[in-house]
Automatic annotation (TrEMBL):
It comes from Syntrophomonas zehnderi OL-4. One of its GO terms (biological process) is negative regulation of DNA-templated transcription. Belongs to the NrdR family. This is Transcriptional repressor NrdR. Negatively regulates transcription of bacterial ribonucleotide reductase nrd genes and operons by binding to NrdR-boxes. Binds 1 zinc ion.
């Protein structure tokens, strides 16, 4: 693997670990030339999955976009990055298990909210406010009331 610092083509693996529930391998590497260390990830290449947006446009599924959205909702909350990565891995696995090549963004949003509701209530409300496009205080109150009933 090419070093991201000096662009040397040769590096050595220092440590390998399974992550994301065994769906990928995390490798710590060291460049042979500059001796700097970096991390790489190895994943199975999956068939393309398209997301149908609310406006009807289609775009490739991007796990980083999902990871960033959930991370934003969990900002300054006692939620570990491992828990967030596990949610993303579970959702991606569930989406690929459906065997559909195209999936609605609304389905993905509901999957995220289901998992955030169990993980952290504040993160759930934050995500729901963006996902459901809350326009006033009553929208927040209704969502909180629904959570209290459950």
């Amino acid at each position: 693997m090419r070093c991201p610092y000096c662009r040397e083509a040769d590096s050595r693996v220092i440590d390998s670990r399974a992550c994301e529930d065994g769906l990928s391998i995390r490798r710590r590497r060291e460049c042979i030339v500059c001796k700097r260390r970096f991390t790489s990830y190895e994943r199975v290449e999956e068939r393309p999955l398209l997301v149908i947006k609310k406006g009807g446009t289609r775009e490739p599924f991007d796990r980083n976009k999902l990871l960033n959205g959930i991370s934003r909702a969990c900002e300054k909350r006692p939620v570990s990055i491992e828990a967030i990565e596990n949610i993303v891995a579970q959702i991606e696995l569930d989406l690929r298990d459906v065997n559909e090549r195209e999936i609605s963004s609304m389905v993905i949003g509901e999957m995220v909210m289901d998992r955030l509701r169990d993980l952290d209530e504040v993160a759930y409300v934050r995500f729901a406010s963006v996902y459901r496009q809350f326009t006033d205080l009553n929208s927040f109150i209704n969502t909180i009331d629904q959570m209290k009933q459950k």
